[in-house]
Every structure is written in C-alpha cells, then in structure tokens.
Specification:
This protein is 37% helix and 19% strand. With 395 residues, the protein is of the alpha/beta class. The longest helix is centred in the C-terminal third of the chain and has 22 residues, at 292-313. It binds adenosine monophosphate (AMP). Adenosine monophosphate binds at residues 207-208, 236, 279-281, 284, 326-328, 331-332.
C-alpha cells in the first residue's frame, strides 16, 4: 500500500539521527548512526511496524545515508512515497526566524552561520547535500534550533560587552532547543485550553543539554542558553554559567583555550561535580546509596535551575504554567520536587502524589499552586509538522 512519507534528519559531526513518519504523524522507522569517521561506525535502524532492529557497519555520513536509504527501500518505496525531508539545523543566526524550504540562498546563509556553530552547521549542510543529491526533486526543509528565540528583545539578547562585537561579529545571545520549547508551548496551549498567542509559560527543557525559556503570548522572550549552548543551566557535561574571570585564572594556571573549552563543554556539569556520570539516573541511584558528590551535583543542578526559572519570570506579566520536559524533566520526580522546593516564593508547590513517574501531559501542582505540567517533547514531530506546512501541495 502506498503512503506518503516524511524523513527527518539530524546530522551531527560524528552522528546521524533519522526518523521516518507518515504524513498522518505515525512514526514508522527511526535510528541513528554513531562514531562516524571511525572504525567503530555503526548504523542502527528500527522498523516500528515489524519491530525489526538491525545494526550495520558503516563509515562516514555519505555511507550511512546510502545504507539507510537501501535498508528503508526494502520496506518503503521512497522514490514514490517520500514527499519531503526535514533537517534539524543548529544555528540560523539572525537570518532565520522560522523554518524554511532549502534553496541555494538558504544554503549560503547556513554557510554564513558556520562561525557561530563551527562543529554543527557543516555537518547539517553535509546531510542536506547528500540527500539533495539522492532526491534532487524533493523539497527539503531546514528547522533551526535558534529560530524560535529570534523574538527575544534586544535587552534580553545583548551582552554587556563593547557593542562592536555584536555589530561586527554577531556576538549576542541566540538560544537553542527552540524546536522543543516551541513544541511544548503548542502542547501546553492544547492542555490548558488557552490560545497560544495568549499563553505565558516558563519552559524547562532538561536533557543532557538543558535550557529554560520565558514564553510571552506564545513567543520566546528570554532563554538561558546564549551565543553557544554553554551558557545557563548546569548540564550533563557542560558547566553552564561561570565567572568569565575564570578564563584568566585558568590561563595563568597553564591551560590552553582548547583545554578550557574541553573542560567546560565535555568534563563539567553533572559529570564534573560527581566525578562519575553525566546521567541523572545514575546520579540519583548513587546519591541514594550515600555518594556525596552525586548528591551535590543534583543539588546544584536543581538550585541553578530554580534560579533560572525565577529569572525567566521577570519577562512575564503573569504565568499560565511552568513546563518540565526533556529526559530529566519528563522522568525525574526527584529533580522536579527539589527544584520546585526552591520556588515556593513564586507560588509553585507540587502535589507529591501527582508528581509520580507516570505524569506525562498532566498537571502536577497542588490546588493552591500555579500550574506545573510535564509535557514529553517531540522535536522530530515538530520538524515533520514544519515540513508538511512548507512543502507545496496539500496532504
Ligand atoms: P535527553 O537528552 O532528553 O535524552 O535526556 C537525557 C537525560 O535524561 C539523562 O541525564 C538521563 O539520565 C535522564 N533521564 C532519563 N530517564 C530518567 C529517569 N527515569 N530519571 C532521571 N533521569 C532520567
């Protein structure tokens, strides 16, 4: 039976994630390629209808995509059924305020944003080029991590450093995880039965990367990540905010700029404090068994998060809900509880029974509190929706 399909591609520097959806939003296949450009490169594919999982040896992005298309072609008639491809693109700078159909001009603009995301944008472009060669007639859409935050006002996005760095080099706060913050904003609008353009939220995307956003009338007006994803919250391996004076100090201790970058991006955050893991599940287990530095990592994570939620509130005139999402936000009652314990002064209190393991798409606050909701994010679905909206033809 013929159906119409959308392929979602997220090309990283050494990885590739994909998802194949029908245009009525059924997830049909998903998977990832990892350790690309190394001898350990593998492609994992899961077909949802048959529960078949396969793992193949691969090499680089080109080879992984070629293999993926061959494998999918065994079950789907891609040449006939595929109607569009949606790509996650990390940095759209100030050029992209929403998702767009990919043209030569769009490709040039994504290239212009490479200095802002030197690891990510080239990989995203590689994915776009490979698929454009394989399916030259097909519309491809770019969905940017940054575009949802382009509605931030100047006072929220400008750093207090000489203004010429903004004018000449685009140094400003851009924010990331926009696709997730946008998805949960739309879901919250449905759950709370309130028009999205009247909706005020603080959204907390807490995964291995983490950020909060202030949403006023459905639009992002502030967020915790900045020019790069390093700013803001404590994350799996990223430090989040630190004293910029630390750079001078670490340089005086003999660290190179590369050492400092690696330390702050890959060796800090939950991993750096606990010394054992960047995975919140492991830390919760270890803390319960008395591992003091795991407990400290969780405490710092929740305290910083609460501080940032409070900081987001100054951009709003009222709040309809605080939203938790991402792997940690959706699945950790402990993190939600510890964070909310700091927010009593702002009128948030949890109902400890409702704040259970299975509270997806539910309100979890007690009766006297402002709304607190848990909403599973789905960035791939958001990319499917944007792709469907932009490609010509009605489906
Ligand atoms: P993500 O990047 O959204 O996939 O989220 C990954 C993070 O979610 C990791 O730190 C996981 O440890 C965390 N996570 C997933 N499930 C749970 C859980 N049940 N309890 C605590 N953390 C969880």
């Amino acid at each position: 039976m013929n159906s119409k399909l959308i392929l979602v591609i997220n090309c990283g520097s050494s990885s590739l994630k994909f998802a194949l959806y029908s245009i009525d939003h059924q997830l049909l296949a998903e998977g990832l390629a990892e350790s690309l450009n190394s001898v350990n490169a593998k492609l994992h594919i899961k077909l949802l209808n048959t529960e078949i999982k396969s793992t193949l040896d691969t090499k680089d992005h080109q080879h992984a995509i070629d293999l993926l298309i061959i494998e999918l072609q065994k079950t789907f008639d891609l040449k006939l059924e595929l109607v569009g491809i949606g790509h996650r693109v990390v940095h759209g700078g100030e050029s992209f305020k929403q998702s767009v159909i990919i043209t030569q001009e769009v490709i040039s603009e994504i290239k212009n944003c490479i200095p802002l995301a030197p690891l990510h944008n080239p990989a995203n472009l590689l994915g776009i080029n490979i698929l454009a060669t394989l399916f030259p007639k097909l519309n491809q859409v770019a969905v940017f991590d940054t575009s949802f935050h382009q509605t931030m006002p100047e006072h929220a996005y400008t750093y207090a450093i000489p203004y010429k760095f903004y004018k000449d080099d685009g140094v400003r706060r851009y924010g990331f995880h926009g696709t997730s913050h946008r998805f949960v904003t739309l879901q919250a609008s449905k759950l709370l039965n309130k028009q999205v353009d009247t909706l005020n939220l603080v959204t907390a995307h807490l995964g291995n990367g983490a950020s909060v956003a202030a949403i006023a009338n459905g639009a992002s007006v502030d967020t915790s990540m900045g020019m790069t994803p390093l700013e803001g919250l404590v994350m799996g391996t990223r430090s989040g905010d630190i004293d910029p004076g630390l750079f001078d100090y670490l340089i005086s201790k003999g660290l190179s700029p590369e050492d400092i970058s690696r330390t702050l991006n890959k060796e800090s955050g939950l991993l750096g404090i606990s010394g054992i893991s960047n995975d919140m599940r492991t830390l919760c287990e270890q803390a319960a068994q008395g591992h003091k530095l795991s407990q400290l990592a969780i405490d710092i994570f929740c305290f910083r998060l609460a501080k940032y939620i409070a900081a987001m509130m100054v951009s709003l005139t009222h709040i309809d809900a605080l939203v938790f999402t991402g792997g940690i936000g959706e699945n950790s009652p402990l993190v939600r509880e510890k964070t909310t314990d700091h927010l009593l002064i702002l009128g948030f209190t949890l109902d400890k029974d409702l704040n259970s393991l299975n509270c997806s798409n539910k309100v979890i606050n007690d009766a006297d509190s402002k709304n607190i909701i848990v909403i599973p994010t789905d960035e791939e679905l958001m990319i499917v929706n944007d792709t469907l909206e932009l490609i010509p033809g009605t489906f």
